[in-house]
Design goal:
Number of helices: 7
Strand content: 15-25%
Largest sheet: 5 strands, antiparallel
Number of strands: 5
Structural class: alpha+beta
Strand order of the largest sheet: 1-2-3-4-5
Radius of gyration: 16 Å
């Protein structure tokens, strides 16, 4: 639902040092490899729209926070921070989000990361949705929410949208291939959308 947000990939700068993935497929595969997390906290509220707030510690990078909220028939917002640095902060109607992403993505911060750190950050944004803490928060919120599958659509869309941003941005960072990176972002976003939607609807049944 929000997967078009991967268009943020065109903001990322070149210049990171270190060993980069050899191909877009290699990068995409790296984002699907499980990783260890520490200090994960997650809060999900489905009572009025969808509100998601996730924080965790990422070795070599710092404390990562991803917060998103969306109304059933209204705007969506995202904020991504590392320690006290805002990496992405935007909101609006879905048709406006790509343009806002273009204007607000903090490419200066990303240019300070080496390739290994950048892959670790993008990978964590993909994999954190499968941690026990996030799954438990989603299940508890779904059980307390009205039994409406549209809420699960929004929850899946918010999570899938953030994955599209992370995967597409990382791909563009390394390869600067728009169409290929679009496929990477959309593919992972679609998978995560279905995963979160199924978890949410399963908790409501």
């Amino acid at each position: 639902m929000l997967t078009e947000l991967f268009i943020a990939v065109s903001l990322l700068a070149t210049g990171a040092s270190g060993t980069a993935p050899a191909t877009p497929d290699e990068f995409s595969n790296s984002l699907q490899e499980p990783m260890d997390f520490s200090g994960v906290t997650a809060a999900v509220d489905l009572s009025e729209g969808v509100h998601v707030d996730i924080t965790y510690e990422l070795d070599g990078v710092g404390q990562v926070r991803l917060a998103a909220q969306g109304e059933l028939d209204g705007p969506a917002t995202f904020i991504l921070l590392v320690d006290d640095t805002t990496i992405l902060d935007f909101g609006g109607e879905l048709t406006e989000l790509p343009e806002q992403t273009w204007e607000t993505f903090n490419s200066e911060y990303l240019a300070t990361l080496d390739h290994e750190e950048a892959v670790s950050l993008f990978n964590s944004l993909v994999q954190v949705w499968a941690t026990a803490e996030v799954e438990q928060a989603l299940a508890e919120a779904a059980e307390a929410a009205p039994s409406r599958s549209v809420l699960c659509d929004v929850a899946g869309g918010l999570s899938g949208g953030s994955i599209g941003v992370a995967a597409g941005a990382g791909c563009w960072w390394f390869f600067k291939k728009f169409k290929t990176c679009k496929k990477v972002g959309v593919g992972l976003a679609t998978s995560v959308f279905g995963y979160i939607k199924d978890k949410c609807e399963g908790a409501q049944n």
